[in-house]
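Record type: monomer structure entry
Structure origin: computed from sequence
Chain ID: A
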Amino acid sequence: MNETQQEGTKRPLGSFRPKLAFYHANARGTGGALQLELHPAHDDTDGSIMATFATQLTIGDRLGAVPVYPRFDWEGAITVKLDFTDISKMLQVFRGECESLEDGRGLFHQSPRGTTKIVLAHSVEPKQGYLFEVFRSRRDGTDAHAMIFLSPSEALGLTAAIESSMGVICFGIPMLVEHDTSQYKASLREKRNASAA
C-alpha cells in the first residue's frame, strides 16, 4: 500500500514517487533502514537510483497495550546516488559474479563536501545474506556510517527490481510522440480509389 492509499486522499498524477524500503530494527538498537528511489533518465540527465540509509534510533516495544515501533534517523540519513556503473557493479555482487564491490575496496563518490564509500559484500558466516553499507567522511570533520543486512530473498527481489529498472535508468520513460500520418493516409486513399475505379 502506498502513501496515497494510506492517507485516503488523491494526489495529482506524478506527485508521488514510490520507494522500495527495507526496515531492519533489532533489540540491540543497531539496526538500519534503506529506501531506494528510481530516477529515470530525462532530457540531459542520466538515470539513477537514490539510496538513503538510516540508522536505528529507538528499540520500540510491541508488547505493551499500545505498540511503540522502532524509529530510524531519517534526519541524519546518508543518501547516495547510484548511477549506471555503480548499479551494474552491484548487480554483479547480487548475481554471485563477485563477492564484493571492487574486491572489498568498495565504490567511492567524491563531492565538494566530502567522500562517500559504498560497500556491498556477500556474507555466508555467521549469517547468509548481503551487507550493504555507506561511510561518509565530510570535509568539516564529521563522519557518518549506516548499514543494513539484506537476506538472500530480499537481495533476489531487489536484483529483479533493479534489472527491470535498467531500461529507464539508461533511456528514460518512452513517450508517445504524435506524428503526421497524412501522407500515409493519402497514399492509402489513392490506392483504394485506384482499385475501386
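Annotation 1: The longest helix spans residues 152-171.
Annotation 2: The CA atoms of residues 92 and 98 lie 6 Å apart.
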